[in-house]
Write a structure and sequence with these properties.
It is a single chain. Helix 4 (142-155) crosses helix 6. By secondary structure, the chain is α+β, with helices and mostly antiparallel strands. It has helices spanning 21-36, 51-81, 98-105, 142-155, 260-265, 271-305, 312-333, 344-371, 378-390, 396-404, 407-429, 439-452; strands spanning 2-9, 12-19, 91-93, 111-118, 132-137, 159-161, 173-182, 185-198, 220-226, 240-253, 431-436. It has 3 domains: 2-118, Trigger factor ribosome-binding domain (Alpha-Beta Plaits), CATH 3.30.70; 158-253, Chitinase A, domain 3 (Roll), CATH 3.10.50.40; 269-451, Trigger factor, domain 2 (Orthogonal Bundle). The strands form 3 sheets. Strands 6, 7, 8, 9 and 10 form a 5-stranded antiparallel sheet that branches. Its EC number is 5.2.1.8.
Length: 453
Amino acid sequence: MQVTETLSEGLKHEFKISVPASDLDAKADAKLVDLKDKVRLNGFRPGKVPVGHLKKVYGRSVMAETIDQTIRDTNTQLFSERGFRLATEPKITMPTEQAEVEELLSGKTDLTYTVAIEVVPAIALADFKTFEVEKPVVDVTESDVDEAIKRIADSNRTFAAKGEGAKAASGDRVTINFKGTINGEAFEGGTGEGIQVLIGSNTFIPGFEEQLTGIGANESRTLKVSFPKNYMNDKLAGQPAEFETTATLIEAPQDLAIDDEFAKTLGLESLDKLKEAARERLAAEFATATRQRVKRALLDRLDEAHRFDAPPSLVDEEFNLMWNSVKAEMASAGKTFADENTTEDAAKEEYRKIADRRVRLGLVLSEIGEKNKITVTDDEVGRAVIERARQMPGREKEVWDYYRNNAQALAQLRAPIYEDKVVDFILELAKVTEKKVSREELYKDDEAEKSAA
């Protein structure tokens, strides 16, 4: 075998490889000898078919298998000897001319091909004991508990009809019948009867609820609104519409006593038990937010400590996935880059930086996991599948079957589990200091990101 490196440019390499025809022929003959005891041909007793006859019958297919196996074995040996870790599948270029292919399959010429690869760079891992990470800690206050219970009470509030002649106000519930038109023509889904609208809930088309303020029972109005540009129905998105609306019932929210009786309507023994449940839920929410903040800070630290050139093809792949998603979301929302105070070129540059960071961090986390023998067990993946199934009551079997029959979906479940285990490994080595913060401070970064989005 003869190997010549024809390209060495950064993480990209290309080799020209030549394997003598005599080596191929010897390997093919060995396969034929092995085949001799397995095939059944008319006129020959089992195991007595001459190899020469087998070569006439199966020679071309056996040689094709031999060539394929030789290429795999040769590439594996080449990459192993040079310590290459491939970023992507190798690109192999074979002879394509019919005459060359015939010569090769008949064993009359050497196998010559090229293999182009892109490799993962050597990654020098940082000393994680030098990492310092701040962990924000929030105590659940009585005020937090009271606010949580008030939200629960608001969502369970009852309504009662207002007196004769009463008008609807913000916070009231109005039952309506309506018929919508666009340019004077009715449209699918534009009519409704007995629909309850809570004024101020912002659950209907912008402007719809506000125009019900002041309406009385059995009163009719024409509500003029425009469907949002990102409305789920493309035919209606951005369209001005009119709704001939009649209110049939005006109801006001009733005072709700937050006491033991209220707690019992929620299936709890007492108000104290309700407060205890609310406190536990808030503590879990704060713990999740804290974990996200700590993980984000640690990933930032890993990014700073590991600067290297990421494989371009992996960055391109990650960028394309992100960019296609961004374009689809913007098209759905009817937005342009100008609406986001940027340009397409500037946005592409920003997302390419994000793609580069994701790829590098992915490689770093993989290197840490590999060197420290961090793995994800089948039991851990199984528990993740069960958790997903629990999130879809009534469809548990459907979810279970989906993951059982979809290796890629299972891999998507395994990836975040692996990442979290590597993060936990680093945090055990790093210096983590706790800092008491307010609830507002804990969620500050998340709110800032939402505002910028």
